[in-house]
Amino acid sequence: MERDRETGRVLFAGEFNFVFGAQKLGQLPDPILPEIAFAGRSNVGKSSLINALTGRRALARASSEPGRTKQLNFFELADRLTLVDMPGYGFAKAAKAVKEDWQGMMFSYLRGRPTLRRVVLLLDSRVELKASDEEIMKMLDRAAVTFQVVLTKCDVPKPPALAAKLRAVGEIVRAHAAAFPDVLATSSTTGAGIEELRAELARLANPV
């Protein structure tokens, strides 16, 4: 396990660059490196988690405004892995037509991307699971894309509440065919769980 953490640390300390922001499927960059996509409700902490994983403060833009990420943002890591910041779902301010368009694009990307290795589905540890979260899990099942649930902001709940949340989410995950069985608890503020997530994702990268 310690060796896996060191492998993850070295990978995520490598050169990390923004490649492209795609607003349409026709704009997607060529599928070359293995890809890990990050999905979650708006304001769940996707950008903050990507920044924590890579040790950068503002490479992926974090915002308190729900729905700021309005495209698929591609970042290349050490020429071995691509991280994809997906548009948030479930935000209230976007027009219905725009939300439907974004979610349609998400599904088309998920089911048609040959280099996509896993979706990291972020859930806020402080709040109850939303209907939109359940719908995204079902969409991932339909797309036959492996996804792993990662809890964010885990520095906020008390340990008993966090343990109960992990158990409850674990039960839900086991009901989904495409779900990776391990649920990770993370905090971009304290760094909790970041090493474990790096190690997990490093296993999906191209070898050195």
UniProtKB/TrEMBL annotation:
SUPFAM superfamilies named among the record's database cross-references: P-loop containing nucleoside triphosphate hydrolases
UniProt keyword list: Cell cycle, Cell division, GTP-binding, Magnesium, Metal-binding, Nucleotide-binding, Septation
Gene3D superfamilies xrefs: P-loop containing nucleotide triphosphate hydrolases (3.40.50.300)
GO biological process, one term: division septum assembly
Keyword Cell division assigned: yes
Matching InterPro entries: G_ENGB_dom (IPR030393), GTP-bd (IPR006073), GTP-bd_ribosome_bio_YsxC (IPR019987), P-loop_NTPase (IPR027417)
Protein task: Necessary for normal cell division and for the maintenance of normal septation.
Family: Belongs to the TRAFAC class TrmE-Era-EngA-EngB-Septin-like GTPase superfamily. EngB GTPase family.
Protein name, as recorded: Probable GTP-binding protein EngB
